[in-house]
Amino acid sequence: MTRKADQLPADRFLDREEGWLRFNQRVLELAEDTEIPLLERTRFLAIFSSNLDEFFMVRVAGLKRRLATGVAVATASGYHPRDLLERISEVAHEHMLRQSECFHRSVAPALADAGIRIVRWDHLDDDECQRMRRFFRRSVYPMLTPFAVDPAHPFPYISGRSLNLAVRVRDPHTGRQMFARVKVPSVLPRFIDLGGERFVPVEDVIAAHLPQLFEGMEVLERHAFRVTRNADLEVDEDETDDLVQSLENELLRRRFGPLVRLEVEETITDQMLNVLREELGAEEEEIYRVPGPLNLAGLAQIADLDRPELKYPPMVPVEPRVLTQEDFFAVLRERELLVHHPYESFATTTERFIALAATDPRVMAIKQTLYRTSGDSPIVEALIEAARAGKEVVVLVEIKARFDERNNIEWARKLEEAGCHVVYGLVGLKTHCKIAMVVRQDDDGTLRRYTHVGTGNYHPRTARGYEDFGLFSADQEVGEDLSDLFNHLTGFSRKKHYRRLLVAPNALRDGLRRQIQHEVAAHLQGSPARIRIKVNSLVDEEIIDALYEASRAGVPIDLWVRGSCVLRPGIPGLSETVRVRSVLGRFLEHSRVFVFENGGEPQVWIGSADLMPRNLDRRVEALIRVTDPGHRRRLVGLMELAMSDTTSSWHLGSDGEWTRRTHDESGAALLDLQNTVRGDRHLRLVDG
């Protein structure tokens, strides 16, 4: 029925890193789209910059580490890491210049037409200059520290993602020239408000006042620059007795990671660039010369302006109607509840679930995993309140959640201080599953477990912008599954098989492969067969090979992938039946949905796992099988909407290029998926 992977074409995988860059290119295309509200385009420019920062800090840093340590095997796409770094540099240079062009030629002029202007110092009028001089003396000057470089003063350390000015000064008495660095304080706004919706880059304000920092010296030139450093953490969990302390030590070292990118304004002179290159140890492909201003991630400040006519129309999440009519726990005793964020309210469903449990005298215990959240989250506050009320509260905090490590450590300690039992997960694995369980003694004396399994984090802020699903249940099998899973996470259980869950790393990979093989067998027997998957990333080679084999057998396969996809669709004899789509828009598509036709009775799963080796092999992930027929129809309908030729989306070609389709052949606009879901009362109120 199948053939071994080594008999499949050697070039069957696209490159993962370039695939991620192509995802960020799609974000940039949204910024370039003049049909999108102006301040939303501005925000997409900011997101593009933030995404690229993280890509360099993690993915590029990882490739460089492999080269430095001699682990330089070829990637699945055939690239040697050194060749791949060169290719990344080529594409990233192209994208950064394209972003700058979008800002200068499209977004900034459109902002100016709307009365919002980002102006450089030379374009300030006299009143604005005077106001900025007062602002500088009062709010900026006390925080600045110029660092000269000479035999007595070595080149200062440049922290990652900081904005800096490289300055060349001359002593008029001796004629001696010196280099100096001035760091832009990170506590200052990226753009200083001049009033009247006019803004000036903060580095321009500092640059205009350099003579006050270098009094008696002649300022010959100054140029903005920015460094990106390796920010990935390496903690050997097998060699540490205190994971929290080891992680805190590693966070301190993160500030001093090696350089992976040097951004400079294109106006920088060769002399100044050579100083930076030599002192920072930057290779030619690591240097990015772009039109200023640098760090356009700061455009989020502009996007936050109170100009509703330049933003997406307001959206008020709805509350499932059934929850407005009955007690939450009573609802779950009658039926399972599927909620779709942000279209349906996170506050009145997930937050409310934990808050009710915290104050309900019949609730005996609460158990929950937390991967990312905010320290002032209502969920964290509810867990603290529950512990103080004497309830048994167990919280598994993943302190290795990338870039949230410090925050997670801080509020984990607050939970401990309140009396919660805090667990930091399993050695060698990240706990990424999104699960919660409430144990309640109901009116009939039954000790019942009420559960929640989600696709997204318990984070109230991201829940307003991330698209995710959550399933609430009082089903006995689900309750037993979550009890077993929490025992595995907090104790020494080695349980592998569950009732309605597929759990990584022990069973999820094999479970998905079995589902794929079942579709192949069904198709060969003439039964309805089809595979539909929605994930953030599809890069796992073993799963992709299984999908290739299913396609070779004739099984139709629809893949909805937001980010990086290394599967090549539409290749004769390999993936002819595979279609790959991507949807980006107002909300970040974040849910993971797996639909297998199963002979006409679809098996549908939702959960936390992407199709990446780290999710399947190095994380604790959970998918839950959706059993309610209405819920299954709802999820299948969403997949059909995303893959429809009448829906606007990006289509992946076998060459790795994504093509955006927003209009049909007649020129009519295609449906916007997120607007369609938002306006579809069936999708929003199906549980009512």
UniProtKB/TrEMBL annotation:
Its EC number is 2.7.4.1. The active site is at 432 (phosphohistidine intermediate). One of its GO terms (molecular function) is polyphosphate kinase activity. ATP binds at residues 51, 466, 562, 590. Pfam families: PP_kinase, PP_kinase_C, PP_kinase_C_1, PP_kinase_N. Mg(2+) binds at residues 372, 402. It catalyses: [phosphate](n) + ATP = [phosphate](n+1) + ADP. Keywords: ATP-binding, Kinase, Magnesium, Metal-binding, Nucleotide-binding, Phosphoprotein, Transferase. Belongs to the polyphosphate kinase 1 (PPK1) family. This is Polyphosphate kinase. It comes from Marinactinospora rubrisoli.
